[in-house]
Structures are given as C-alpha cells and as structure tokens.
Amino acid sequence: MKKLAALALALLALVATLVGCATREAAPLKVGFALPDLSNEFFANYGNSVKAGLEAEGYEVTLASYGGEVAKATEQIETFTTQGVDLFIIMGATPDLQGALKAARAEGVKVLLGGNEIEGAYDVCLVADNKQMGALIGSMGADHWKERLKDDPEAEALVLLFSYSGVDMKNRSDGIFETFKAESGIPEEKLRAIEWTTDSGDTTGRTLLENAFTKYPNIKMVLSISDAISLTAMNVMKASGKTGDEYAVYGSDATIQSLLEIAEVNGPSIYRGTVSMGDIVAQTLESASKLLKNEYPTLPYRNEGPGVPVTAENVSQFLPPQ
C-alpha cells in the first residue's frame, strides 16, 4: 500500500507539473509596438490595424507612442524588455537607439524595425526607400509646375525640409527638394525651402505654414514628407482662397483623408498626390507572425519596398471599399 500511495503521489506531482507547463505554454506571446505619434492618422490606423491583426492570431499587443523623442523611445524599449515581451516592433527608430535595441535582443527579445536599418539592432527590418519616396513626391510636383505654373510670373513653391527626426525623414525631404528642383526647372528665387522644427510644439505645422504664406504670399504649391503636414497646408491655403486649378499640395503615406481629397469625393480639391508604401500593415503582420513562430530560415532579414505615386489617375486602386 505504501508503494502504491507513493506511486500515486508521484503521478499526481507529474500531472501537476504537466498542467503547469501547459498553462505556461498557453499564455499568449507578448508584443510591444512603439510608434512615433499615435495622434497622427497614418500611425494610429497603422498601429491599430497591426494590433488587431496580431490579437486575432492570439497574441497580446501593447501600443506606445514615443513622440519622436530618443529618451522616451529608449525608456519604452527598456520597459517592454523588463515586461518580458517576446517581440518588440518600432517604427522610425534612429541610430541613437542602437544600444537599447541591442540590449533588448541580448535579453531574448526579437526586434522588428520599420524605417531605418540599424546595424546589429534587429531581427527583421522593413525598409522604405525614403530617398526614392521623396523623389516621387518631387517628380509629381515638378509635373504640375511645368504644366500649370512654369509661365506664371509670380508663382512660388514651398518645400518643407526635415533634419531633426532621423535619417529616414531627412532622406525623404532631400529627395523631394533635389528632384523637384532638377525636374521642374524652377528659378532659384521662386523655390522656398523652410526647415521644420518642433520648438513650438506645433505638431501639425499650421503656425509654421501660416507664417510662410504671410511671408511668401505667392506660394502656389507645397510639398512635404507626410500627408498629415500637407493636409494642414491644404487647409491653410483653402482658408486664404487658394483653391484654383493652379494650386497644388503633395504629401506621402496614402492616408485615407489624402486619398479622399485626391479622388475629390467631397468636392474639388487642391490635394494632387501622395505616395503609398504598399500594404505596410500586411507586411508588418506577416513579418511579426513569422518571427513569433520562428519561421524565418535565416536572420537578420532585410525587406526593402518601393513607393508608389498616387494621383487622380490611379487613386481608385487605393481607396478602401465603400
């Protein structure tokens, strides 16, 4: 009897151990996802779509916004690492975060980067060719200038330059400026370039743009790195009566609002074009899922995709189903 009792206790202990292991295995894998600005339409829609997709697969996802600040992004990386996430995704990371990302990987956290490639700091990197994307914006603007504004003796164009928010946005704004200048043939004195800053906390750029239009009242075209900023420019221009066929605004990211403006769903618009990075949600979901399931044959893995210009001619291909 004693032997049977001992055997029974041993079996019970084994069952308890197995149940405990099963419980631990059943716990959902955790994902931390840091984005530059969740108040921005593009990043909010992108983050929430990826979150919903991963949660549908059974993963636990937490979104965070670091506001483009290195210190805050570093803190979030460290916090997610301490919390034991299995995967950390960050969009728009700069080389300043290399140390924190390497430290997270050393603790066993898988890292998915979107935007900049940072050596030794990722398992998978989704890279947008930002110089090429900027060139597409500049080229669309150059076409409009040559068609509508070249012979206008007063017309000026404004390009917003970015250098504060990392290599990717600087590359994009450089691509806009260089390509627009080269392809449009615009005289030097008609090309206005203003450096974007965040000193005033003017996140949408409205104050900066209003000041620019006051200083340069003949601006008839604005080109910037994002739809969020360019939509603000459009609204400032409309408020001052700049609504004719000669006016034009170009941006990037193919946000829903920009697509609706280009398609003129709600009436005539001076928003002429944007750039799509393809289905970035699907790309991120696929990459994250494969990382969590250990399905990549070799790591690190780098995936670079080209941008696609979106104008009135092809916007119907990008609009969501009605």
Describe how the helices and strands are arranged.
Elements: H1 2-26, E1 30-35, H2 41-56, E2 60-65, H3 70-82, E3 87-91, H4 98-106, E4 110-114, E5 124-128, H5 130-149, E6 156-161, H6 167-184, E7 191-195, H7 206-215, E8 219-223, H8 227-239, E9 248-250, H9 256-262, E10 271-276, H10 280-292, E11 301-305, E12 308-310
Parallel strand pairs: 1-2, 1-3, 3-4, 4-5, 5-11, 6-7, 6-8, 8-9, 9-10
Antiparallel strand pairs: 10-12
Which keywords apply here?
alpha/beta, 19% strand, 2 domains, 322 residues, six-stranded mixed sheet, six-stranded parallel sheet
Q: Can you give a write-up of this model?
A:
This protein is α/β, with parallel strands linked by helices and 322 residues long. It folds into 2 domains: 9-122, Rossmann fold, CATH 3.40.50.2300; 130-278 and 313-317, Rossmann fold (3-Layer(aba) Sandwich), CATH 3.40.50.2300. The chain is 45% helix and 19% strand. It contains 10 helices and 12 strands. It has helices at residues 2-26, 41-56, 70-82, 98-106, 130-149, 167-184, 206-215, 227-239, 256-262, 280-292, and strands spanning 30-35, 60-65, 87-91, 110-114, 124-128, 156-161, 191-195, 219-223, 248-250, 271-276, 301-305, 308-310. The strands form 2 sheets. The protein has a 6-stranded parallel sheet with strand order 2-1-3-4-5-11, sandwiched between helices. Strands 7-6-8-9-10-12 form a 6-stranded mixed sheet, with helices on both faces. It is elongated and about 65 Å long.
